[in-house]
Amino acid sequence: MWKLKIGEGGPWVKTGNGYLGRETWVFDERLGSSEDRAAVERARKEFYLNRHNQKQNSDLLVRMQLAKDNNFDYFKKTCPEEKTASAAVQRAICYFSGIQAKDGHWPGDFDGPLFTTPLLIIVLYAMEMLQILSCEHKKELRRYMYNHQNEDGGWGLHTETPSCMICTALNYTALRLLGEEAFSEEDEAMSLGRKWIHDHGGVTMMPSWGKLILSILGVYEWSGVNPVPPELFLLPSCLPIHPSKFWCFLRLTFLSMSYIYGKRFVGPITKTIISLRQELHIQQYNTINWNEARTTCSEEDCRTSNSRFRKLLKDCLYKFEYPLTIWPISLLRKRALDTVEKHMKYEDTSSRYILLGAIEKSTRMLCSFMRDPNGEELKCHLARIPDYLWIGEDGMKMRAIIGSAVWDTAFGIQAILACDVAKEHASTLKKAHDFLKASQIMDNPPGDFKSHFRSFTKGGWSFPTADDGWTVSDCTAMALKALLLLSSQSQIIVGDHVPSERIYDAVNLMLSLQNPDGGFSAWELTRSYPWVEVFNITEVYEDVMLDYSYVECTSSVIQALMLFKERYPKHRMREIEKCINEGKEYIKKMQNDDGSWYGSWGICYTYGTLFGIEGLLATGETYANCEAIRKACAFLLSKQISDGGWGESHLSSTRKEYTNIEGNKSNVVHTAWAMLALLKAGQVERDPVPVHRAARNLIDIQLDNGDFPQQEMTMSFLKSGLINCVAYRNIFPIWALGEYHKREAFFKRNI
Hints:
Layout: E1 2-6, E2 23-27, H1 34-49, H2 60-69, H3 85-98, E3 110-111, H4 116-126, H5 135-147, E4 155-156, E5 163-164, H6 165-177, H7 189-199, H8 208-217, H9 248-263, H10 271-279, H11 290-293, H12 308-321, H13 330-350, H14 358-371, H15 376-383, H16 385-388, E6 389-392, E7 395-398, H17 405-417, H18 426-438, H19 473-486, H20 491-494, H21 500-511, H22 551-567, H23 573-589, H24 605-618, H25 627-638, H26 651-655, H27 668-680, H28 683-686, H29 689-701, E8 715-717, E9 721-725, H30 728-742, H31 744-750
Antiparallel strand pairs: 1-2, 3-9, 4-5, 6-7, 8-9
């Protein structure tokens, strides 16, 4: 049986904060009672039978384990005779406390793109290290990929999206590398996958990233890959197209991919690889025109315009490649690769071999193998693979990043405090408080971090844990806001308050991330111009080149700074006032004509509008004196559906217009977001009926044990990206119902 271990280390695992928040799964056949095992198998079977209707796993395996560790009866029915907001809040917080880890955070899945799991398998196979995965690991990895195969035989970019070439080809390939047969009389899943690939033109129709990944295996030729030139790192850093200007996720991915491309690495050509050359293509492998294949991309995958200029750019870079293979010009390539290697080593050590996300992790691990297959660097990389692997009832996957521990904890604290039940749940708050305090990043990146394009990090918080070393503006803001709110509580209830010096450090960091347009980026300042998007090498994502300003980040920082200003009015007073005013103007400027805001990190207009309203309210604006807030409230009210809730499709993000979930279904998280925004904007005082209907929707849908049902994905990124953050289904309904309950007396007087 699988068990989640919290905060434990191991050989070759580096840490700077005692492994705080680290989540790793281990298998031990001796673990678990017969009842535990039966519950797990029931969960797996139920997911499998409903996999085409309910695409997201509910994270039942970890939640049942945590509940048992906390002596919480996971299956106990606590439904009261009368369903009220007060009762719903108490049951929801009791449940939420019951699945809290011993170190104070809430572990959970963070499932994202469907190419991250097969990428790991492909890299391990190319390194001839697939054996580091146990039979149980491989079994669960296969379960995951089969569970998320669409009915047409393909795999989508994410679990809720239609099939696309990159994910279909990579998942099919990974299953073959794990030992699945190409042809089986018992199961036609592989045949269906192969048919989808052939019907859509074969893998020469993959986007550039997919072609590069298959070239690593030797089932595609490097001459058919658009260049990823490491020489860009030799350009003057002042140029707008220098990689130092790229969004940090892209920059780190570009580092490793340019190294692999520059070396033209190819793994061992085995019988399986030779067979895949036939299975993945629709023509004989040795007859493919690789130069022609280089510029093709299926319409199911491509999210960027294939303009004449972009094609010309790719062709020019391609022609530039040949001279780089001839001495003495080849020395330029060697110098570029040496430069890239220096930057990669820095990122490895400064992030303790975690890196930012799954793509960078797998590709960087391969780069370490290429440099020294027996070296300490590779051992450190391999030791951090378990941080990414996650088990759900749908199987094992490689999470998009190593979790959302800090983010969820900061939100969880605010949600519980909003319910005015701090004394009743003091233990939960104290553990969460301790975790958040201990997760603050206390130092800047090591050494000469600016020469490696890094910004200072002292005083900030990351998204998952402090060990990854990357601070984020809104994570820092939400963590600081939670700590400031806790500082109003008795230390007997929540423990020691955070020292003022550490709060000052957090504020200093946030102030450094404001862009000239008044908005806030996520990880770093916006370093170049939007026109560099013409160099987008992903093809599957939009707006990937830069760390832009975002309404959500700007609102989060404003909320934290306003709370800070109340408690510490003299610290950098003028700078903070200027920052808040410019941030407020940015939020107003970004509002759409219909009153909404586009959400870049959640789906979509509901999420963005919540943060837009909260940011303006924090500055002192009100419904009465601010037209922007009035328009935003009108927008949200216009999207409420017949059952009293809200349900916004992920299609809103790609279409850039509000789109309901198919069938006009509501979603508990979207309902909570809209309800929170309206409550804070004073909807109860104007017309309480819409929020009453929303509250009734949440109360009625609550499960018997206090949980809320897992529904569609609610996090997003880069327009077409989706993430399943499972804690959202608990945090935001608690928060919304808590805010509603505080206003319930007013509502009852005026209904």
